[in-house]
Specification:
By secondary structure, the protein is α/β, with parallel strands linked by helices. Helices cover about 35% and strands about 10% of the residues.
Length: about 180
């Protein structure tokens, strides 16, 4: 559907934003391949993880789901970023999703949508019925919350095919950060 140029543009802008402020940045472009154990270590090392992705059919591309399955399963097996699902047989008050050990870490999603901005946060809109773009992608942030990450408000670039506003989006992204 697209060559990925816009997401690469945003990834480069995110990287340069943090590097210019003397943050140490590690990146992965999953479609170029990745080492599962190195990705687990990156998540364990990072204070902030940002996923830059297009949204296809109301989710990230399939390769991102594969990445999540492989990396988070390996992290659980290695007891890095998450130990259990949180529940204990001997203590029924423990809730599902509380077994993460990544407290103090943060997660943010940055996306590109063909959907217009007005499709979100508006109860009169048929598809999302008032949900935000972050809520529409809850499945992504839930992975990180499960591990103990604090979920930050996402950044979303809307209507990128029919009415792109890239320069305005870049200004919004910088303010968002």
């Amino acid at each position: 559907m697209s060559a990925g140029k816009l997401n690469k543009f945003f990834q480069d802008k995110l990287t340069s934003y943090f590097e210019e402020r003397n943050f140490h940045v590690k990146t992965t472009k999953i479609e170029d391949g990745y080492d599962i154990n190195q990705e687990v270590d990156k998540h364990d090392w990072a204070d902030l993880v940002i996923t830059q992705t297009p949204v296809f059919w109301f989710n990230t591309p399939w390769i991102h789901k594969k990445y999540i399955d492989e990396v988070f399963t390996a992290a659980l097996m290695q007891q890095k970023i998450v130990l259990t699902d949180g529940r204990l047989l001997e203590d029924r008050s423990k809730q599902y999703g509380t077994g993460g050990i990544s407290q103090g870490k943060k997660y943010m999603i940055s996306t590109t949508w063909n959907a217009p901005e007005e499709a979100f946060d508006n109860p009169s809109q048929v598809l999302f019925e008032g949900k935000s773009a972050d809520e529409a992608l809850l499945n992504l942030s839930a992975n990180y919350k499960f591990c103990g990450f604090e979920i930050l408000e996402g950044f979303h670039s809307y209507n990128v095919i029919k009415d792109p506003q890239i320069e305005k989006d870049l200004i919004r992204l910088t303010k968002h950060l």
